Please model this.
Amino acid sequence: MQRLGGEWMSFGCRCDSFDNAVNDSDDDRASYAKALEWAHRITTISVMMVLPGLIGYFVDQRLGTVILFTVLGFLFGMAAAIWQLMKIVAAADSDDEARRDETPSEVRNDEAGQDEKDQR
Model:
């Protein structure tokens, strides 16, 4: 990932909001504290995906079944991880909306007028 012109580039994809998502101006914590928070989120989601499948494997070994509980465990883990990711995205979206609502209406009107001028 490279930073070019104030925007993050990842595999040729423009990610304009990446910098805002990680480096929140309202968040005055140290950068390593933010990094630890993201590492915790990623680790939690990874464990949520893998652990139910490993428990299913253990149950399959104890009961002598083929791979029934392993597959069910991994499916449950995948569903739980997707649910957790959706919660993270919803929280980020609500934070963005709250920031947008805090913007004075004059500034929003000026930006809207500028967008109309750009379209002409």
User: Anything to note?
Assistant: The first strand starts at residue 2 and ends at 4. Residues 5-10 have pLDDT under 50 and may be disordered. The beta strands are 2-4, 7-10, 13-15. DSSP finds four helices and three strands in the chain.
